[in-house]
Every structure is written in structure tokens, then in C-alpha cells.
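Lab notebook, bench 4. Continuing the backlog of folding jobs that were queued last week. Each job is logged with the same field layout so the records can be merged later without manual cleanup. Today's entry covers IS982 family transposase, a 294-residue chain. Filled in by technician R.K.

JOB TYPE: sequence-to-structure
TARGET: IS982 family transposase
LENGTH: 294
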Amino acid sequence: MLSIDKITEIFYLIDEFCKEFEKVTHESALEKDTASKKRNRKSKLSDSEVITIMVLFHYKQFRSLKQKVHMQGEFPQTVSYNRFVELQQRAVLPMAIFLKTCCLGRCTGISFIDSTPLRACHIKREKQHKTFKGMAVKGQCSIGWFFGFKLHLIVNDRGEILDFMLTQGNVDDREPLKNMGFHKRIFGKIYGDKGYIGKDLFEQLIVDGVHLVTKIRKNMKNCLMLLQDKVMLRKRALIETINDELKNQCQIEHTRHRSFENFITNLLSGLIAYSFFDKKPSLNLEIIDERLVA
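JOB STATUS: finished
OUTPUT FIELD FOLLOWS
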């Protein structure tokens, strides 16, 4: 059961950010034409309340957004389900900026990268799917073909998300790393699977101050590798565990979306909810170092 203190903490951080966000956007907004008068009625739920409800929806692991009725004790001024869907689409921009500025962790010099599929529907129904027509595509991962998108994640050894990127399902795993904006906050070593092998990518990252470490394929020549790097490659299960929690606990993947905007708000709020988890998958590097010395 989520304590009232945790709910208050989440709402306080989001509300303080939304107040500052509204202040900055209001100061930089262009002046409206006074001749054309439009109604600007204030909504019952503010952007901070909408974002908080979305985050708590993932945090409490509800299976349907309509179950937000259980939070009427914390948010008595609730609205209908259809109206709430409209409000959550309006809160996409502050939600995305809040995630990027307040919820990402700090690089420790040891990072892990991986991609996970976000299925839009079953692969057998790809030609019948219309919600993400022109956006979701057919792609392949380690467990087979899928239809949808790819979520690329970089995490540190503490289980904190350092950065993320959403692409179409057929995008190569190495493409996001070629974008400086995706790894500009990363330094030290980053560990990935065999899908990130590439001489050009390795050389580019070295110039940017990032050392990419991967396993080698069977048809490649063997090369010397530090024992510590071999051990850390075996610890890549950390990021796979994070992907599992994001999908099964935060529910960033399901096939009930009715618009791309709802898909984005569901993804962003799920990532925010994960950042508030008290216990995240992590590595005890002290134990690993002691084993290497022994």
C-alpha cells in the first residue's frame, strides 16, 4: 500500500516543477490578440494533479486508467474518464521536461545499454492495426519478430535511468548511440550486447570519451579483455531486469492504446513512476571488486 507521505512527496515535486514551468512559459509566450476573445475556463484538475495521477497509476500497478476512481480520497476534484484523457494529452510537454530534468540519474562511469521492443499488437495482426499506422513497423529482436517500437535505455550500476530514446521497431540498436545527444551525459565505460558491435561506432564513442565494451561474435578473432570488463558483461542482467519492471510493473507496454498521444503519455509517466521506486535493481560493486582481488 502506497503511503500518504510518498504520495505527498511525488505531488510536491511535480507541483513545484509545474509552477516553475508555467511561470517560464507565461513569460516567454507571445501576447494574444485582444480583439478575439476566447473562453479560458480553468480545469478542475491542474497539470500537476494530472501528471501525479498518471504516475500513481503506474506506481500502484493499476490495470486500467479507469481505476483512478480509487484515488478520489487524494484528489476529490476528479473528472470523467474522457475528460481526463484530454487533460493528460495537454500535460505531455511538462511531463516530458520533468522526466528529462528531474527524474534521470547521474552517470557513475559504469553504464549499461540495451533496447526492448514495445509491441503495438500481435505480429499476426500487424496488417489490421490502424492506431499507429505509418509509425509502428515490423522489427526483430532476440526473441523474434514484433510490430511496434523500440525503447533504448542507458542505466547506471544503481539501476537509475540515465537517458532513453524511442524509435521505430526496425531501427538498428547502434543508431541511437551515434547521436551525441543520447550519450552526452555518459562517460567511462558502457556495456552492451553483441548488437552494438561496430568499429566506426567504437571509434566515435572513444572520441566522445565513452568506452564501449561488448562480447565478441563466434566469427570474430579473440581479443584480450580486462577481467573486470568480463565480469561486468555478465552483469548485464541488470538492465534486462529494469526492462522487465518497466513492462510488468509500470506497464509501459500494452496493446490497448487508441492514439499515439496516449501511448506517449503512458510511456513517460511509466518512466517517471520507475524513478520514484524506493528499491531499484542495482549492483554491489564492492563485492565484485573483492571477488576480483581474491
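OBSERVATION: The first helix runs from residue 4 to 28.
SIGNED: R.K.
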